[in-house]
Write a structure and sequence with these properties.
The complex is a heterodimer.
Chain A (H helix, E strand, L loop, with lengths): L2 H6 L17 H34 L6 H4 L5 H29 L7 E8 L2 E6 L3 H6 L6 E5 L4 H4 L17 E4 L3 E8 L4 E5 L4 E5 L5 E6 L4 E7 L11 E7 L1 H12 L1
Helix pairs in contact in A: 2-4
Chain B lengths: L1 H8 L7 H11 L16 H18 L7 H10 L2 H12 L9
Helix pairs in contact in B: 3-4
Classes of the chains: A alpha+beta, B mainly alpha.
Bound molecules: copper (II) ion.
Chain lengths: 258, 101
């Protein structure tokens, strides 16, 4: 993928944004498609119901019953206005369930990322290379503790172009085109790990290890925020992920651990 | 920003034979496989089970680290380090609820 392209995609919220962020997983693509389908059906319903209301109000009143007499206790009408909503619901349910079940499609993960919520920051652990590292006489592991980059530090020159309240002091590196297993947990209260571009929002509960599988289709910087009210600094524990091609990720692991 | 651009656009430098070999090894690392017994979203029991499988292996082989390395790695891969530390500590103090060596 060309470098310029990643900066044209919307992977972080914009000011007064109305639309969803650009998808980077098939899950999110499915969610967006379903959202569009829903809006289409909703528009039809709103127009139809609005038109019916308007027509009824303007055409009939207590003195004008000529027309309404002709379909009083009408069987055909009863059948139509019972089956129409049922069919509409069916039309919504079928893609909804398809999406739901395709979302927990399971695959063989290649890398596990443990995501731990704290009051008030996220920490990450990737321990898959631990054995390899100890074999190579190195006890380094991939661990990230990501605190919010404060406004003062962002205003410094080397942070130009950074997002306010979205950047962390360390960015988590993840490989693209790799089956990832995310294990989300917490050590204190409920948090929620959410990345709009991935279509992922998982609660972090103490004592639970919530698993989600993601397959990132493209590289880029992705941002998210804690999405379960967890205390005073709930709004100040963002998530910043840097997704690189898997080959570069492997190279990063080699250079970092050995 | 320049740092990100660098990460994305940098060509992978020429690798020495040793690095090439390491890269190959890193590529072939696979995390803990899925377990049919734990199909649910909550993998806490999966983690607990992998940890005890490692302990069982240690028990059966008489604490042979090399033979049980795979099991150790599989438990390390999916258990949060906090939990592992807790359990290791509990084993030392003799209050561990799982497999006893
Ligand atoms: Cu929160």
């Amino acid at each position: 993928m060309r470098i310029e392209k990643i900066f044209f995609l919307c992977d972080a919220p914009e000011f007064a944004q109305l639309r969803l962020q650009d998808p980077s997983t098939t899950t999110m693509e499915g969610l967006i498609a379903f959202n569009k389908h829903l809006l289409f059906v909703m528009t039809i319903i709103v127009v139809l119901v609005g038109w019916l209301l308007f027509a009824t109000i303007s055409n009939y009143d207590e003195f004008n019953t000529q027309k309404s007499q002709s379909f009083f206790h009408s069987n055909a009408l009863e059948i139509v206005w019972t089956s129409l909503p049922a069919l509409t619901l069916l039309n919504l349910a079928s893609p909804s369930f398809t999406l739901l079940y395709s979302m927990d499609e399971i695959s063989t993960p290649e890398i596990s990322v443990k995501i731990i919520g704290h009051q008030w920051y996220w920490s990450y652990e990737i321990s898959d290379f631990d054995t390899m590292a100890t074999c190579m006489d190195s006890d380094k592991t991939l661990k990230y503790t990501c605190y919010l980059l404060t406004e003062e530090s962002i205003s410094q020159k080397n942070y130009l172009g950074f997002f306010r309240l979205l950047e962390t002091n360390k960015r988590v590196l993840l490989p693209s085109n790799t089956h990832l297993r995310l294990l989300v947990t917490s050590v204190d209260v409920l948090h929620s790990w959410a990345i709009p571009s991935f279509g992922v929002k998982v609660d972090a509960c103490p004592g639970r290890l919530n698993q989600v599988n993601v397959f990132l289709k493209r590289i880029g910087m992705f941002f998210g925020q804690c999405s379960e009210i967890c205390g005073v600094n709930h709004g100040f524990m963002p998530i910043a992920l840097l997704v690189v091609p898997s080959i570069q990720y492997h190279y990063f692991v080699v250079s970092k651990l050995f | 920003m320049s740092k990100i651009n660098k990460i994305f656009s940098d060509k992978i430098p020429e690798l020495s034979e040793k690095e090439e070999d390491l890269l190959h090894q890193v590529k072939n690392v696979r995390t803990t496989p899925r377990d049919q017994r734990f199909p649910s979203q909550n993998q806490a029991l999966h983690c607990w089970n992998r940890y005890n499988e490692w302990l069982l292996c240690m028990k059966q082989t008489g604490s042979d680290d090399d033979k049980c390395q795979v099991y150790r790695q599989w438990s390390v891969s999916i258990c949060p380090n906090d939990w592992l530390e807790n359990w290791d500590e509990a084993r030392e103090e003799g209050r561990f609820m799982g497999v006893k060596i």
